[in-house]
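User: Hi! I'm working on a homework problem where we have to compare a predicted structure to a textbook description. Could you give me the structure for the chain below?
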Amino acid sequence: MIPLAWDECHGFDEKGIVTVAKNGKWGRIDRTGKQVISAIWDSIGAEDVKGMAQVNRNGKWGMIDRTGKLVIALRWDSIGHFDDGDFAHVIQGRKTGFINREDTITIPPNLHANYLHWQDITDVKDGIARSLQFCEVGLKDRFGLIDRTGRVVVQPAWERVRAIIDAQSQRCGLVAIRTEPKLEAPAWVKTLREWLPRFFSADDAAERKVCELHDADGTLIWTSEWRSAWFYPLILTSFATLVLLGDAMFSWRRRRQRVTKPA
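Assistant: Happy to help. Predicted structure tokens:
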């Protein structure tokens, strides 16, 4: 029988352990009422498959084992459960990273907390399949990719970045896109626009978009650039007849520079 000594009490888990609280502090007891984990924590989470649980004290989070021993130091603003790869997501201020069960930082907390998500993907190289994981990470308003070791595969310098698979070759590619600062229109464009306003955009600057394709190891395969034109389609309406001038219909022109051919 468990004595009536606790302010709060949760249900028993499959191991016969119950979480209890007294005077705002949480701990755990077994079916005999013996304290398995002392009630010294402001908050205590559920155990994972290896018996580790999140604990909080004075606003900082860490982890304890089944005996109540502190195995992850109380130094994090937030800490998640360990995943199948034995990595736990941690937050420190506005930055985030990952630690392993030995309390070693595997991915330093220098990236924004809201932009972490692992993408599982399979890459086939030389007939051998390998399972890869990439995490999209944010640094200010730019994004990149890291692998499970914390290595930066694609620098966080892009508006959008994603791992993709080529259906035919089963090779993995890492695609990154960003918008570059606009190019100011040269003087001759501005002069001609004054004389032929229908031929030219009202914008003094042309927008550029850059796209890069990397292989699974982060090596650049090719890069492309799209640039908006300063002139746009000429549309003449004369006696209800619409005249479209061929290629001038496109307000974007694409310039592609191939670095090397994909493997």
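For your comparison, note the following. DSSP finds one helix and 23 strands in the chain. Confidence is low (pLDDT under 50) at residues 230-263. Good luck with the assignment!
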